[in-house]
TrEMBL record:
<keyword id="KW-0378">Hydrolase</keyword>
<dbReference type="GO" id="GO:0006508">
    <property type="term" value="P:proteolysis"/>
</dbReference>
<dbReference type="InterPro" id="IPR051167">
    <property type="entry name" value="Prolyl_oligopep/macrocyclase"/>
</dbReference>
<dbReference type="InterPro" id="IPR023302">
    <property type="entry name" value="Pept_S9A_N"/>
</dbReference>
<dbReference type="GO" id="GO:0070012">
    <property type="term" value="F:oligopeptidase activity"/>
</dbReference>
<dbReference type="InterPro" id="IPR002470">
    <property type="entry name" value="Peptidase_S9A"/>
</dbReference>
<dbReference type="GO" id="GO:0005829">
    <property type="term" value="C:cytosol"/>
</dbReference>
<dbReference type="Pfam" id="PF00326">
    <property type="entry name" value="Peptidase_S9"/>
</dbReference>
<dbReference type="Pfam" id="PF02897">
    <property type="entry name" value="Peptidase_S9_N"/>
</dbReference>
<feature type="domain" description="Peptidase S9A N-terminal">
    <location>
        <begin position="13"/>
        <end position="224"/>
    </location>
</feature>
<keyword id="KW-0720">Serine protease</keyword>
<keyword id="KW-0645">Protease</keyword>
<feature type="domain" description="Peptidase S9 prolyl oligopeptidase catalytic">
    <location>
        <begin position="502"/>
        <end position="705"/>
    </location>
</feature>
<dbReference type="GO" id="GO:0004252">
    <property type="term" value="F:serine-type endopeptidase activity"/>
</dbReference>
<protein>
    <submittedName>
        <fullName>S9 family peptidase</fullName>
    </submittedName>
</protein>
<dbReference type="InterPro" id="IPR001375">
    <property type="entry name" value="Peptidase_S9_cat"/>
</dbReference>
<dbReference type="InterPro" id="IPR029058">
    <property type="entry name" value="AB_hydrolase_fold"/>
</dbReference>
Amino acid sequence: MDPLLPLPLDPAAEDPWQWLEALDAPESLDWVRQRNAACRQALAQDEAFATRRAALQAVLDDQARIPAVARCGDWVYNFWRDAAHPRGLWRRAPVGEHLQAADPDWQLLLDLDALAAQEGEPWVWHGALRCGPGSERALVELSRGGADAAVLREFDMASRQFLPQGFQLPEAKSRVVWLDEDRVLVATDTGPGSLTDSGYPRQIRCWTRGTPLDQAPCWLAADPQDVAAHAWVDHGAQPPRVVLGSAPAFFTTREHLWHDGQARPVDKPESAGLGFWHGWLLLHLREDWSVAGRQWSAGSLLAAPVEDYLAGRRDGLQALFQPSPTCALQTWAGTAQRLVLTLSDQVTHRAEMLWPADPGPADAAPLPWQRLALPLPEGGTLALQPLYDPQLAHDPWAETLLVTATGFLTPERLLALDLDAVAAGQGDAALRPLRARPAHFDADGLSVHQAHARSADGTAVPYFVIGPAWDPAGDDRPCLLYGYGGFEVSLEPWYLGGTGRAWLSQGGRLVVANIRGGGEFGPAWHQAALRGQRQRAYDDFIAVAEDLRRRGLAAPGRLGIQGGSNGGLLVGAVMVQRPDLFDAVVCQVPLLDMKRYHRLLAGASWMSEYGDPDDPADWAYLSRLSPYHNLRPGVRYPPLLLVTSTRDDRVHPAHARKMAARMLSLGQPVLYHELMEGGHGGGADNAQIADRQALEYGFLLRVLGPR
């Protein structure tokens, strides 16, 4: 037994390592410090580690990266971190300058490093909610150490000061939206009975400035068994529509419109996402729906005139998008005149815009919609952001689209697209480059290749191979296989800045598996691996690994796997099921104890994804999938690196703690590292993220060996 491993407090208990669930207990933190020291002794003592960490941080701190912005009125807002400002700067610039100048004149609003030093708090930025174009008020959310829970304070952007008598909330997993400058809708922890079983707020209150929160009227209350309550405001309508809702499960919602002092339910499938665009109501279906004599398939985007739909008429529904076996809707967004759809086609993006042939939906007869493909880069990922602000009466950028285009080997490029010019047939002339991020590694000689593996049930599972040019004869390079496979999350191409420096430039190959459970091919791809069908996601991942072996792209001793959160559960499960197949495992902020996951932090909110361990029928399959419960004496598992965070208040660090403790008790090769802050994102600032990544790549290179 490892000499640094304390004995469990109750060796006879069913779960002898349950004491590690006590997050801040002295014995738990002593264990964490001992394991951290052992990990750093093994991985962080040589010059190569320091060099790798510096290279990774340089990517994260790159001054030439493209600022992510959000528009409100005449300004775009950005939160920026770099080496000089590790906790970050909240700033803004005029919209026109952002569209013209290579380096606009950013106005500083809040220096988070200075605030953290002044208040002695490890503040991590969680965002800001601006009141609207005519206001200088914002609600700033600050997290201690990167946890999901945050404090909220009202901020005056004109004076750059927090308002002592403004809206304020203590640390909680709050949700707040502005109604006007003197009222907010707030869902927060107000004491007993105010939270769901998942630990999220269940009451939505209308809070008026200057009044006590506990006296604010409750406009909607979710059931305690629901995941959470939520609210949002559709500013595209006059007066704005106030939407109040609850989530009975992770992918279902019950929505209400606040009207005449009442929350009136919107009749829709609970699994369908609801949206509004001017006079249209939009539904994004996650399940097939039969209504008014029509059958609509899961993954479709439907539109109907708002008033007709709310009056109960369903014959006006029209399909704006219907999926195919290889093409799914990823996102939609609206401008003043058009809807913009981002589509995933064979796991890369394309986009189109559409608009009703008639200016409005007043005619009772369904009206056809015009449709045009957008002239955008192909073969990668597109992030489309309309600059339209519906709260402005006259918006000069109402039809301007910001486009970020990227690929595995292609750094991000920011472009502006004029949708009016596209509609006028001007094509590529409507597209204007704004900024381009420089490359962080030499991609010469590297390529991206898409292949398919055949899963256990015969399903074709796509995966990307990134690295040296595809060689059907194979080679002896270290290969890292990455996956997620849950919650309808799609793994589409992203720029491999840090991975390129720390892995590809060292001769490594990266493989990204698009397994079931994700959203690459729409809701059906996700639902195929829900609950009792979860093994399909693991079978898909195993099939990709076996296909790499068969093709010679993952030589014996050279195949590592990596995943985080639900992806941590993935790599933990396949490691236990097929220890012969994998040679190294990096498991990040994982779920691993599927017997108690629903009792830890936000775990109860995921039971629609995994199942209820207290239900004997669900535990029958969960017991076969739970990595923590399927470790066996006498089996040799591949070397494992577990990384997590004490401040992760979404996935409890006890999952990783207990897995490490049990593996150590079995004499298995495991290293464990727990950040004392950072939350579920794995780092509170760029230095912490770079340090963690340097440990991970150092572990993989040590176990799998450089080429």
